[in-house]
Amino acid sequence: MGRGNAFLRSEAAVTARLSNGAAGLRAAAPIAIGYFPVAMAFGAAAVKLGLEPAQAIAVSALVFAGASQFLLLTALASGNALPIVVVLSGLVNLRHLLYGPILLDRLPQSGYARFLFAFALTDEVFAATLARRSTVPEKFGTAWLLGLGFGAYASWVAGTALGGLLGEALERDAPMAAEATGFALPALFVAITWLNLSRETAIPMAASAAVAAVCAWLGYTTVGLFAGAALACLIHGMRR
Amino acid sequence: MSSDAGHLWAAIVAMAASTYATRGLPFLADRDSRALSLLASGAGPLKMLGPALLAGLAAVTVTPSVAHACEANRLPVYLSALFATLLVLRSRPDAGLAVLAGVAAYWLSLTAL
């Protein structure tokens, strides 16, 4: 009897976990839909710049950060030094340091769940988790978090694979469509920038963009990025 | 493996490690630590550094592509794609959809010309 109850309890626990995981995957659906075309554009652009499809897929599977990955492509296209790209990527990703502390009180105690979830903690996954925080009062289940993270990650890697594998064929058979996919990179940066605009950030961001654009026009891209960011932080500090 | 490929892989691994570190390190900190509280409050230069760099990256990506579009007589195509991207962003904060709209508008304009 006792053994039967234990079996029923464990079966109920497994069912609850599966159901939570499925809910996490459902919550990832809008992210996955958004990620797929961007990841395809990344895969196609990476192959166009000389990476093997397997290398492009590996970049997405290991890094899983859109801005950093497209930054790598701009370096490959412009011949910028790779160490500078690594530093810039680290600086761009500094904003991720803010996400963990904001979510910490609602994450499970389990270390493995936190560190697995951390791998998938992109801007969009953070936003989805934050949205759930305002509607669900209890701690997030491990299965829900991993379902959410996996859904986003799988879409990103699958999109890259498709873009990488079809990119060359697209170039050969549909050159206009291939040229159009080249617009994905500026469009992505414009979109991410737009989504970070707020009353508080607008002026510093405009200053940063202006300095970076002028320097890029003159051929000093890296200097422009650092000088623009420094000016933005200075303006932000003076306005506080 | 050639030296260039080796450097590329080293850069990729370094980018992956630094990305994971920024996402995972806060989970290692003591819950009551001052640094964690400061990060959670979103104060300090870190709050502006990310958006400022993104704006700068957008500028350094768009600037040469506009110059290239001018040289290739593609400026109307480029601007229509940019307009479509911004139009979608105004109505829905979805980067994926906006990129899709921009690429589609670019292709349609290119076909129409």
Model description:
The complex is a heterodimer of chains A (240) and B (113). Chain A has 240 residues and is mainly alpha-helical. Chain A folds into two domains: 20-182, no CATH class; 197-240, no CATH class. Chain A is built from twelve helices and no strands. Chain A has helices at residues 2-48, 53-63, 66-78, 82-92, 99-103, 111-119, 123-135, 142-173, 175-181, 184-195, 202-218, 221-239. Chain B contains five helices and no strands. Chain B is an all-alpha fold and 113 residues long. The longest helix of chain B is centred in the middle third of the chain and has 26 residues, at 46-71. Chain B folds into two domains: 1-43; 45-113, no CATH class. In chain B, helix 4 runs antiparallel to helix 5. At the A-B interface, helix 1, helix 2, helix 3, helix 4 and helix 5 of A face helix 1, helix 2, helix 3, helix 4 and helix 5 of B.
Oligomer: heterodimer
The count of domains of chain B is: 2
Radius of gyration of chain A: 21 Å
Poorly predicted regions of chain A are none
Q: Structural class of the secondary structure composition of chain B? A: mainly alpha
Number of DSSP strand runs of chain B: 0
Mean model confidence by pLDDT of chain A = 84
Pattern of helices and strands of chain A: HHHHHHHHHHHH
What coarse outline of chain A follows from CA principal-axis ratios? globular
Number of strands of chain A: 0
